[in-house]
Design a protein that fits this description.
The chain is mainly β. The chain is about 10% helix and about 50% strand. Strands 1, 2, 3, 4, 5, 6, 7, 8, 9, 10, 11 and 12 form a 12-stranded mixed sheet that branches. It is globular, with a radius of gyration of 16 Å. The chain starts with 13 loop residues before the first strand and ends with a strand. The relative contact order is 0.22.
């Protein structure tokens, strides 16, 4: 059998950064591999470097398939009383299937970073909710929103960075995209 591997250099990556002042570092990259909005599917890969950067606090609302391609994925469930569970660690080759989650979580790569495939399936287009550090929903992310944000910058040959602040309101009012 021929061995194949995912080559990150073949894809355009979007960097997501958080605003200063959060109790955790927000930094990761993502690429959209493909989507079919009518069918409610979106496939993407998230990349974390080994710098402790996280995804923003979020809760998946869609059915999500996860396959760790390289490195590790670390997840901490966050409880309403402010406590967090011990980390769950998924290593390269580990697979998970969630059908929406009751608790929000923090998510990052391991000490050497990580690369994970996410297959999202949603009948209403909702992917996940972003929450502030008090675990209040600040916005919902839909397939349409993520694809529009991606397509807005996909043709640019320069590096694109999306910075979001943790405040209520639509993502378009809280996030800004810059190119360099």
């Amino acid at each position: 059998m021929a061995q194949s591997s995912f080559n990150p250099d073949r894809h355009k990556w979007r960097e997501v950064l958080g605003e200063p002042g959060l109790s955790y570092k927000v930094r990761h990259d993502y690429t959209i591999l493909g989507y079919d909005l009518a069918a409610g599917t979106l496939d993407m890969v998230v990349r974390w470097r080994g710098d402790g950067g996280h995804c923003p606090i979020h809760r998946h609302t869609s059915t999500t398939t996860v396959l760790v391609l390289e490195g590790e994925q670390h997840l901490w469930d966050l409880h309403p009383d402010g406590t967090r569970d011990e980390p769950r660690v998924r290593r390269a080759g580990d697979y998970a299937l969630t059908v929406g989650e009751a608790l929000p979580h923090l998510e990052r790569g391991g000490p050497e970073g990580g690369l994970a495939f996410f297959g999202n399936h949603s009948s209403d287009g909702l992917l996940y909710e972003l929450l502030d550090e008090d675990l209040k929903v600040i916005t919902t992310v839909t397939m349409e929103l993520l694809v529009a944000d991606w397509e807005e910058n996909a043709a640019a040959s320069r590096k694109t960075t999306r910075t979001c602040r943790a405040s209520r309101g639509p993502a378009s009012a809280r996030c800004r995209t810059t190119t360099s």
